[in-house]
Structures are given as structure tokens and as C-alpha cells.
Amino acid sequence: MLARLRSDLRAITERDPASRGPLETALTYPGLHALWAHRIAHQLWHRRLKFLARWLAAVARVFTGVDIHPAASLGERVFIDHAMGVVIGETAVVGDDVTIYQGVTLGGTSLSHEKRHPTIGRRVIIGAGAKVLGPITVGDDSRVGANAVVVNSVPPNSVVVGIPGRVIARSSESKNPTFKIVASELVPDPVGLSLESLFERLHDVEDAIELRARVREVRPSAAGIWSGDDFSI
Predict the structure, then answer these.
(1) 171 with 97, same domain?
(2) From CA 80, how far away is CA 99, in angstroms rounded?
(3) From 90, 92, 103, 183, which residue has the greatest number of CB atoms within 10 Å?
């Protein structure tokens, strides 16, 4: 347990450029405090001390603004950045080296006693305000954009944006093979691409109409009667 707690602390100091050392991080990062409290509550839960585990989770929520069910499974070196408003449900599974920003919900869509929360793969980054709902899987090395609502499983190494979440191709690879963050200016805009495709199609239709109008040109007959393809005078 102590080794895992030290690993959590070391992960934050290595991955957060705002961290100025282990001591400051250990004393001032609410996301780390919430994670440490969950580590203890999770152990209590599996030792059948469920009331004590829920009480500890409730106390941690008051002081950190993070609500993690004691039964949720969190891997090693998870980083909850800024922390406030993060909610992780009972049957959620979070892999190693995952980064979660503020306002993220790993929620359920069912009231039955079964797997109803998402499974997050390794090295996934979930942007601020994103909602990942239901017993779905987010593959390893994927990125979930801020405020996205993900309700379908995501293949590995994908970028998900929008409401509902849509998978778009990764447009840039980071030099760091462990933590890849796609720059916002390099992420394709699916709405903009759709409009561009629509305008191109409209131009094609307009060109076809102009060509058809030239072919169906009105002309006078040899008898002096004006006629066309679909009318005559």
C-alpha cells in the first residue's frame, strides 16, 4: 500500500508541470488526497468493512470534491487533476496511468446490480467535464475531449469529441510514447468537415444544373415557332 501511495505521488510530480515538488504536491493536491483515501476505502470494502469504507469515501468527498465509490477499481499512477466534481461509480474500472480532469463522470445507465459503469484502458486522458456512461470500454491510449458524452465503446488509440461522442482519427502523435495529448488546433472539426462536404456537393449540383440549362436552350424552328425540350409556342 505504501509503495502504491508513493507511486501515485511520483506520477503527479512527473506528469504535472505545475507541481513544484513532492512535499507541496502531497499537501496541496486534492486529487491526490481523494485517490489516497480511495486506496484505503477500497481495501476496507474488500475486507467486508463496507460501512467504514463508505464513511471514509463520504469524508473524502467533503474535503476534496471527488466522489469515488469504494468498490471502484483504480489502477496505478492515476492522476486526478484539479479534482473538483469528479464522480466514479461503483463498477467502474480505471487502468494504469490514466489522467482525469475536473468535472468528469464515469457513470452508469442502469439500476440493476450488474456491471453498469465504464472500463477505462491504460494511459487514457479524459478531458474536463466529459461524461463516460454505461458498461462500455475506452481503449488504451485514447483521448476523450472536454465535455464529450461517450455512450459507446471506443477502440484503442482514438480521439472522441462531441455530444454524443464520435471517434475521429488522431492527427498528431506525441514524441512521448506514454502520454500523448492532441493539440486542439490539430483535432479535426467534424461539423466543419460535414459543412465543407455539403458545400462541395452543392457546387457540383449547381454546375450540373447550369450544364443542363445550356443543353436545353430554347431555339426558333425553321417555321419560326419557338420551341424547347419541354414546351413550344
Answers:
(1) yes
(2) 6
(3) 92
Domain that residue 12 falls in: 2-188
- CATH code, domain carrying 159: 2.160.10.10
For 35-70, the DSSP string reads HHHHHHHHHHHHTT-HHHHHHHHHHHHHHHS-EE-T
In this predicted structure, which of 124-133, 136-145, 161-170, 182-191 has the lowest mean pLDDT?
Answer: 182-191
Q: Pseudo-torsion of CA 171, 161, 122, 89, nearest 10°?
A: 180
DSSP at 109: S
What is the mean pLDDT of the segment spanning 113-126? 90
pLDDT digits 0-9 by tens, 186-232:
555 666 677 778 888 888 887 777 766 665 555 555 555 555 554 44
Confidence of residue 175 (pLDDT cuts 50, 70, 90): very low
For residues 160 and 214, state if they share a domain: no
Q: Which three cell numbers stand for residue 134?
A: 454505461
